[in-house]
Design a protein that fits this description.
Blueprint (H helix, E strand, L loop, with lengths): L13 H15 L4 H19 L2 H5 L2 H5 L4 E10 L5 E12 L5 E7 L5 H17 L5 E7 L8 H15 L8 E4 L6 H15 L19 H18 L9 E4 L4 H12 L3 E2 L1 E4 L2 E5 L5 H13 L5 H6 L3 E5 L10 E3 L9 H9 L4 E3 L8 H10 L2 E3 L1 H4 L1 H15 L6 H23 E2 L2 E2 L1 H19 L4
Parallel strand pairs: 3-4, 3-5, 6-7, 6-11, 11-12, 12-13
Antiparallel strand pairs: 1-2, 2-4, 8-9, 9-10, 14-15
Helix pairs in contact: 1-2, 2-5, 2-17, 5-17, 6-7, 8-9, 8-15, 8-16, 9-10, 12-13, 15-16, 16-17
The structure holds NADPH dihydro-nicotinamide-adenine-dinucleotide phosphate (NDP) and (2Z)-2-iminopentanedioic acid.
The site of (2Z)-2-iminopentanedioic acid (2IT) has 12 residues, from strand 3, helix 5 and helix 15.
């Protein structure tokens, strides 16, 4: 018997099996705390399914799911504007390709390390499975910090990063995209370098510019999708986002387009944030103010505190997150574990009825527990933010067919996909009259990948 199997004993409870599995996982992957956290949540959801399906146990599905198929780490040397040599570390975690080529974003942020990317790649496997498209899971990035760097420095970094990564990726192999710190500018520089090295114009990255194979609606997709998912959840109570007050964290890609869709659908958005603090605009952030934020963050690359200097009646809360502000809806759209126990409690006490996660794993386990106990509508990231990678999948489909679909077509497909993700969560997550979307998303995402792995043998 392998060292990661438990003896067969029906008296051994599901939770003992989960605990035993997690002990071995943490011992094998020391210090990778975000990875442990992401795996623990999935294991808690899927262990009953595994225990009741002998084929899953016999073929070691769970043991194989938590071991990346391949991890690449590499040196990324580049020269800054002063002429000094800088060295960063690059990664690509190719987690699972049972249902399609590896697919997932690249994150450039000083906090990036192997544990963070393994958690993101692991989540991506289930998320991509939920989209209904054929995409495996991967994630990559670097501890490079684009903040305060000139365009030329970012270009030189991206070119050096791709000079190694290009040999590991390809349109049938692994198709990266953006994430924190990687937007249209970085994708452009990386695409240019890939094309130059490979001498091939192919859809090897998604989130490309419209002029060279990008899809309409990809920039909007994650934020719009998170709002569509909130609408789906609210519709189970015959409710909608119209007239509701919403708080959003972050002020990057996901936050901006979450705000745009909420404003369009008649909600009142009152916050944005960044890693330095939160702005609270009780009058509501309207289209014009949002346009100003987009210029600030995407063109001038400024800080959100400037919003409070620009507009009247706005409070800036340095060092604070938005979760103490009274709201009906919350859209965490910045980073992992940004909603801790106290934040979750404060949201519930203030009457928040729906949380739709644009970010990946933004709620700590204690926070998740708080939302589940309160039985609010809580859509975890792997379901609620899947619109981004789903439209990446649609970008790949368009690239294959040399096509460029109109905006309405992509948006229609995105809405359809978010609807089917919601249906799947309900199917696997219904607990009486309540839907446990965490459980639903984990089990629904798992079953498709597990069955594909079963059919493909022990690889
Ligand atoms: P951006 O880089 O565009 O924006 C990130 C935002 O989050 C910024 O406002 C940033 O503030 C803030 N932020 C980042 N790290 C921290 C931190 N440690 N503490 C506080 N604030 C922080 O990234 P995206 O909008 O693309 O990504 C946001 C989240 O959405 C991430 O969790 C990402 O994984 C997830 N996501 C993104 C998708 C996409 O398509 N882009 C798809 C699905 C999920 P500051 O400027 O101060 O760093
Ligand atoms: O976390 C995510 O789903 C993303 N950053 C988007 C991945 C993608 O391939 O579009």
């Amino acid at each position: 018997m392998s060292d990661n199997k438990m003896p067969e004993d029906s008296a051994v409870s599901v939770s003992t099996h989960s605990q035993h599995f997690m002990e071995q996982l943490t011992a094998r992957n020391p210090g990778e705390i975000e990875f442990h956290q992401a795996v623990r949540e999935v294991v808690q959801s899927v262990m009953p399914v595994i225990r009741s399906t002998p084929a899953y146990q016999e073929s070691g599905i769970l043991q194989r799911l938590v071991e990346p198929e391949r991890v690449i780490t590499f040196r990324v040397p580049w020269i800054d504007d002063q002429g000094d040599v800088q060295v960063n570390r690059g990664f690509r975690v190719e987690m699972n390709s049972a249902i399609g080529p590896y697919k997932g974003g690249l994150r450039f942020h000083p906090t990036v390390n192997l544990g963070v990317l393994k958690f993101l790649a692991f989540e991506q496997v289930f998320k991509n499975s939920l989209t209904t498209l054929s995409m495996g899971g991967g994630k990559g990035g670097s501890n490079f910090d684009p903040k305060g760097k000139s365009d030329n420095e970012v270009m030189r970094f991206c070119q050096s990063f791709m000079t190694e990564l290009f040999r590991h990726i390809g349109p049938d192999v692994d198709i990266p995209a953006g994430d924190i710190g990687v937007g249209g500018r970085e994708i452009g520089y990386m695409f240019g370098q890939y094309k130059r090295l490979a001498n091939r114009f192919v859809g090897v990255l998604t989130g490309k510019g419209m002029e060279y194979g990008g899809s309409l609606m990809r920039p909007e997709a994650t934020g719009y999708g998170a709002v569509y998912f909130a609408q789906e959840m609210l519709s189970t109570n015959n409710d909608s986002v119209k007239g509701k007050t919403a708080v959003i964290s972050g002020s990057g890609n996901v936050a901006q387009y979450t705000a745009e869709k909420l404003i369009e659908l008649g909600a009142k958005v009152v916050t944005f944030s960044d890693s330095a603090g939160t702005i609270v605009d009780k009058n509501g952030i309207d289209r014009e103010k949002l346009e100003w934020v987009m210029q600030l963050k995407n063109v001038r690359r400024g800080r959100i505190s400037e919003y409070a200097e620009k507009f009247k009646g706005v409070e800036y809360m340095p060092g604070m997150k938005p979760w103490t502000i009274k709201c009906d809806l919350a859209f965490p759209s910045a980073t992992q574990n940004e909603i801790e126990l106290e934040d979750a409690k404060s949201l519930i006490e203030n009457g928040c009825m729906c949380v739709s996660e644009g970010a990946n794993m933004p709620t700590s386990p204690e926070g998740v527990e708080t939302f589940l106990k309160a039985k609010i509508l809580y859509g975890p990231g792997k379901a609620a933010n899947a619109g981004g990678v789903a439209v990446s999948g649609l970008e790949m489909a368009q690239n294959r067919g040399f096509l460029h679909w109109p905006r309405e077509e992509v948006d229609g497909r995105l809405q359809q996909i978010m609807h089917s993700i919601h249906e799947n969560c309900v199917r696997y997550g219904k607990e009486g009259s309540h839907v446990n979307y965490v459980h639903g998303a984990n089990v629904a995402g798992f079953v498709k990948v597990a069955n594909a792995m079963l059919q493909q043998g022990v690889v």
